[in-house]
């Protein structure tokens, strides 16, 4: 009887795994199959032409990279600060719990609300109009919980003797942070960042009102009224409005590029996760 | 607390100045008492031993002396610790400065995942600016003092984690010595080591006591006999917290038979009787 239940359980788990794998390979398969035809050197290096039916997605890739880079720059100091607050500076359990709660709430905010917030604050109140900076800041805030939590989990598992030894050598709080805590937990920061950026790369809602347009932008030169093109918004618009088969092919091509970008970021996170300890010992 | 006075010779603590002192030091964890009213004075240039059964609070006492206990949230400290007559918990005391002057060596060596050289100067480079070319000199001096120089001089850039545990412990000692501390607190520094490495550390302590004051927690009574000028025996009845049951010159303390706990402890080590604590 017990054997039977065991078997059933294994079967059920295997079925779940197969189902998940099936769904993922189906999605990836469709995107690769439909998108592969569109891929060409010209597609990657040419700008958008005739409303997406011709030309390429060069400035969409650039725009997405600009947004991601901005998000990274915004997120790193904020996440590091919050994680250090949690792991080092906040001495009371209560305040740490509050910070944790704040991060959980922030993590739960739907991305469309980030978009609306950005529209109100950056676009309207600061009167930036649509701007890459607004989008980058929003994406940075959106992935803040992911990154901060990844880092603070790593800080939590820091061997306590390290901290005590450093304190015993007369290192102050901040000296301990710079020479022990951060070097030992930077792997957590990198992992969190890459996972967060992988998510941010595909987000449409936070940037569609605030940072990105469909056509007619290239490299921004200022902040005000300087939108960028982006991959997810490109896909969004093409999928919604276009009945032109040439545009459909470009749509799948863009999807494939975006998928590649996200996959690349996630894969980069893998060695950062696994190799961290060996690296530290070099 | 019973102070044992040696009969013939004069007590060294009377002739030398008291450098570190505790007065009615108490430590609580919530309602639980970990230490109850510790009074002791450590004189300059001596090796002061702390012995006692496991869980008596020896480490806790040691950590009070350089305020490392501050890192433990939830422990409450009462009473005074005086370093050169100045309260270590007073406003005027810079805790980081205190920990520079009162160094610490732990039971397990704690080396950072860095090169040997970087480990040695890990603390001292925060304390004062050291020019890049002086680093080697500083490291060499400390490593020589810790009797490790001959073994590592050709591989200062290799990871310190590659060293044996005994070497790591001497590396930790070198790291502490580089700070030029006045007092070194050692919490069972040899309990993780093999006899040969233990011997090396023992010899070092004999050498170091010429210049520095050492507080040594140890489980090995032979080690205490060999190294310590004076010892304090800390005992804790269950649920009461540690107190100094007996303190004085090493031989005098060790030969006391009127204290049941102490003779249990001493007898246990020599394999005569076995204590239950
Ligand atoms: N942070 C803490 N919170 C609560 N209790 C503690 C804390 N730190 C230590 N204790 C308790 O204090 C007592 C003394 O511990 P301590 O480590 O000082 O003993 P010790 O004499 O050094 O023992 P050993 O010889 O095994 O190292 C123990 O009963 C321990 O459980
Ligand atoms: Mg101990």
Q: What can be said about this structure in brief?
A:
The complex is a heterodimer of chains A (282) and B (277). With 282 residues, chain A is mainly α. Chain A has helices at residues 2-35, 41-45, 58-89, 93-108, 111-125, 132-156, 160-168, 173-202, 205-208, 231-241, 245-274, 276-281, and strands spanning 48-49, 54-55.
Tell me what the structure shows.
The complex is a heterodimer of chains A (282) and B (277). Chain A has 282 residues and is an all-alpha fold. Chain A has two domains: 1-38; 41-281, MetI-like fold. Chain A has twelve helices and two strands; from the N terminus they run ααββαααααααααα. Chain A has a two-stranded antiparallel ribbon with strand order 1-2. In chain A, helix 3 packs parallel to helix 6 (132-156). The N and C termini of chain A lie far apart (53 Å). Mean pLDDT of chain A is 86; it is low at 277-282. With 277 residues, chain B is of the alpha/beta class. Chain B has one domain (3-110, 181-269): P-loop containing nucleotide triphosphate hydrolases (Rossmann fold), CATH 3.40.50. In chain B, the strands form two sheets. Chain B has a six-stranded mixed sheet with strand order 6-7-8-3-9-10, with helices on both faces. Chain B has a four-stranded antiparallel sheet with strand order 2-1-4-5. In chain B, helix 9 (195-208) links the parallel strand 7 (183-187) and strand 8 (213-217). Chain B is globular, with a radius of gyration of 19 Å. Chain A binds chain B through residues 91, 161-172, 175, 179-180, 184, 280-282, and chain B through 66, 68, 71, 73, 96-100, 103-104, 106, 108, 110, 112-113, 122-123, 126-127, 159, 161, 172, 175-176, 179. Bound molecules: adenosine-5'-triphosphate and magnesium ion (MG). Magnesium ion (MG) binds at residues 58-59, 187 of chain B.
What brief labels describe this structure?
heterodimer, A: 282 residues, mainly alpha, MetI-like fold, disordered C terminus, B: 277 residues, alpha/beta, Rossmann fold, 6-stranded mixed β-sheet, 34% helix, binds adenosine-5'-triphosphate, binds magnesium ion
């Amino acid at each position: 009887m017990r054997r039977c239940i065991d078997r059933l359980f294994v079967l059920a788990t295997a079925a779940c795994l197969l189902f998940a794998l099936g769904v993922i390979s189906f999605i990836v398969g469709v995107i690769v199959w439909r998108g592969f035809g569109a891929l060409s050197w010209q597609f990657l290096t040419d700008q958008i032409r005739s409303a997406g039916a011709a030309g390429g997605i060069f400035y969409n890739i650039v725009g997405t990279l600009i947004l991601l880079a901005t998000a990274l720059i915004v997120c790193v100091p904020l996440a590091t600060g919050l994680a250090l607050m949690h792991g080092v500076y906040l001495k009371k359990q209560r305040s740490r719990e509050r910070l944790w709660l704040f991060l959980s709430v922030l993590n739960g905010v739907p991305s469309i609300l980030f978009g609306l917030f950005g529209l109100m604050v950056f676009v309207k109140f600061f009167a930036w109009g649509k701007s890459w900076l607004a989008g980058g800041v929003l994406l940075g805030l959106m992935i803040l919980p992911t990154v901060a939590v990844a880092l603070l989990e790593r800080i939590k598992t820091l061997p306590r003797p390290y901290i005590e030894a450093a304190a015993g050598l007369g290192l102050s709080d901040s000296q301990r942070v710079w020479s022990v805590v951060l070097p030992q937990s930077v792997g957590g920061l990198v992992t969190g960042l890459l996972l967060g950026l992988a998510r941010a790369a595909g987000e449409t809602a936070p940037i569609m009102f605030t940072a990105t347009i469909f056509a007619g932008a290239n490299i921004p030169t200022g902040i005000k009224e300087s939108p960028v093109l982006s991959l997810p918004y490109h896909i969004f618009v093409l999928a919604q409005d276009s009945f032109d088969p040439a545009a459909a092919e470009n749509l799948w091509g863009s999807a494939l590029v975006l998928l590649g970008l996200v996959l690349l970021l996630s894969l980069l996170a893998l060695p950062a996760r696994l190799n961290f300890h060996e690296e530290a010992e070099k | 607390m019973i102070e044992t006075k040696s009969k013939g010779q004069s007590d060294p603590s009377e002739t030398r100045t008291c450098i570190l002192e505790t007065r009615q030091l108490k430590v609580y964890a919530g309602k639980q008492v970990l230490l109850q009213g510790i009074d002791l004075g450590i004189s300059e240039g001596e090796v002061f031993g702390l012995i006692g059964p496991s869980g008596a609070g020896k480490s806790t006492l040691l950590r009070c002396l350089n305020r490392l206990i501050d890192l433990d949230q939830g422990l409450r400290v009462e009473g005074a610790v005086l370093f050169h007559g100045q309260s270590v918990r007073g406003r005027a005391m810079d805790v980081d400065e205190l920990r520079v002057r009162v160094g610490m060596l732990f039971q397990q060596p704690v080396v950072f995942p860095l090169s040997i050289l970087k480990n040695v100067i890990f603390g001292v480079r925060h304390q004062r600016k050291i020019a890049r070319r002086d680093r080697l000199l500083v490291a060499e001096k400390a490593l020589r003092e810790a009797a490790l120089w001959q073994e590592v001089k050709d591989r200062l850039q290799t990871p310190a984690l590659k060293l044996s545990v005994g070497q790591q412990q001497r590396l930790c000692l070198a790291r502490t010595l580089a700070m030029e501390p006045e007092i070194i607190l050692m919490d069972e520094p040899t309990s993780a080591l093999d006899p040969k490495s233990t011997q090396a550390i023992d010899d070092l302590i004999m050498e170091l006591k010429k210049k520095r004051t050492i507080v040594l927690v140890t489980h090995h009574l032979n080690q205490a006999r060999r190294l310590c000028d004076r010892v304090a025996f800390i005992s804790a009845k269950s649920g009461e917290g540690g107190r100094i049951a007996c303190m004085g010159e090493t031989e005098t303390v060790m030969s006391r038979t009127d204290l049941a706990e102490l003779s249990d402890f001493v007898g246990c080590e020599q394999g005569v009787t076995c204590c239950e604590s």
